[in-house]
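Technical annex B. To support the medicinal chemistry partners, we prepared a structural model of the target in complex with 2-OXO-4-methylpentanoic acid, based solely on the information shown next.
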Amino acid sequence: MQKYTFPVTRTTHPKARPTDESTLGFCNYFTDHMFMMDYDEGQGWHDGRVVPNEPIPIDPASCVLHYAQMMFEGMKAYRRPDGQIQIFRPDMNAKRMERTAERMVIPTVPEDILVSGIEAVLKEDADWMPRTSGTSMYIRPFIFGNEISFSALPAKHYTFIILLAPTGSYYGTTSGKLSAARIYVQDKYIRAAKGGTGFAKVGGNYGGAMRASEDAKKYNCKDVLWLDAAEHKYVEEIGTSNAFFRINDEVITAPLDSGTILPGITRDSVIQLLKHWGMKISERKLSIDELLAAAKDGSLKEIFASGTAAVISPIGCLNVKGTDYQVADGQAGEVAMKLYNTLYGIQTGVVEDFMGWTYPLDVYAK
Ligand code: COI
């Protein structure tokens, strides 16, 4: 992979570092610097740079604020026991960026610029790397059309930014003590339809989901289990994450072929690990009726969500129109625990990377 170096402008106003890592939550803090790059039609990507992480001027008529031509990625950097910082399967993020960019008519950023940009900003903010078990540095690369125009057409100028945020857990889980969340089975709204943008990482998918997540709180649920848009019959994703269901010894997740499922990098890693362990993993349609029948007769052993932010988040109870369906004993299941410990172990260099997934950077945490 080609390595790029970029000019750095250091902040003159360093922020206060979080002192208690148990309060990190999900991206409550952002580091001192960010990576920025511009794209102009005819010129391509240019002027990559590390600059202070501070508000940027944006014209109120900038097209992204009106037509949402944007895309993003979610990645994490991890501190190895020897202090070296590594990232996880960046080639997969670069490939997904390419697919999202194609769908959104946005020029993609190649993998070597993505990784060099991450490395450059992490070098400046290495002292922000959290060290407590269960933490990591969330990386948010995003691209948006940035042109003064009310024409609903692809922009000619784009901005690419990478932000870093020391982070704890998304759903309030911590290493070794995964807590099981309650999830509402969504029967009114849909997340993605065939031919839409469900497979792409775009802000609209998340903005459009907020009404449903908010309504789920009425049932004391953290988020929703989405059903397919066409029939409201088959389970798809959980909140902002992919979903896995263990019925007896078969682990099931929705197939990618409908184009409505986000091809999660954690999802793919879970599938590969389960195959490596000789477990039965099926990418197949699972109806809500089959799922609830399994919950009733006790063959439903586990449900968990997977994602970069969520890592592996067990689900202890499904709520359907106000009725609870407990998943097994309502606690984190054994497969979810094993996956969490293996994945996070590989990511942090505590478990040998027998899959060849980690990508050590030339950056050392202090
Ligand atoms: C991620 O898991 O990285 C995501 O982008 C989901 C987001 C809602 C935090």
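Notes passed to the chemistry partners:
The two ends are 26 Å apart (CA to CA).
Residues 90-104 form the longest helix (15 residues).
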